[in-house]
Design brief:
single chain, 179 residues, mainly beta, Pnp Oxidase, Chain A, ten-stranded antiparallel β-sheet, 1 helix, 3% helix, globular
């Protein structure tokens, strides 16, 4: 357990964050990020001995994951990540919590790393005196999430890894497949 969770600690909000693309700080007019959703693949099963239907999730297998970057307006650097190749995207954020016992705010470190491929790019709209509301979307095949230096999630679809807090739930499946 992190020193930033527990009794008397109230997680509040993202204080601020920074995006890095292939190791370099992004200089775009980034407003916010649509984080990848974790949705397990599932199949509805029914049959003898089952009272109706069960939505059975497939261990460690996720539906397609996407990450969206939302921009206030476009600059030339927005077009840098349109080449059809993998990009390493990393977000480093500060998470503000209130320590009620000490009566002070504390900052936790949140870090998400993804490997993504350009999936779409909406240039938005042009209106006088308005933001363009542009968006770039990436298909995500790899993701690692750390909170305060502790790895809490790793998804590597190509290498069949699904780890939650250090436990890889696909170890037995890889062994069964001879991997």
């Amino acid at each position: 357990m992190s020193g930033l969770t527990g009794p008397g600690i109230i997680p509040e909000k993202v204080t601020n964050y920074q995006l890095y693309a292939d190791g370099s700080r992004s200089l775009t007019a980034l407003v916010d990020v649509d984080m990848p959703d974790i949705q397990f693949m599932s199949e509805t099963i029914s049959g003898a001995g089952i009272a109706g239907e069960i939505d059975s999730t497939t261990l460690g297998h996720l539906q397609a994951m996407n990450m969206g970057l939302n921009f206030r307006t476009l600059i030339d650097q927005n077009y840098n990540m349109l080449e059809q190749r993998a990009y390493n995207l990393e977000i480093k954020a500060g998470i503000q919590s209130l320590d009620q016992n000490a009566g002070k705010f504390i900052t936790g470190k949140y870090r998400i790393m993804v490997k993504g491929y350009p999936k779409g790019f909406s240039q938005g709209k042009l209106s006088v005196g308005k933001a363009t509301d542009s968006k770039q979307e990436f298909a995500v095949n790899y993701m690692k999430v750390e909170y305060d230096g502790e790895e809490v999630l790793e998804v590597d679809k190509i290498n069949m890894i699904f780890k939650v807090r250090g436990t890889d739930y696909l170890t037995d499946l890889r062994a069964a497949m001879g991997m």
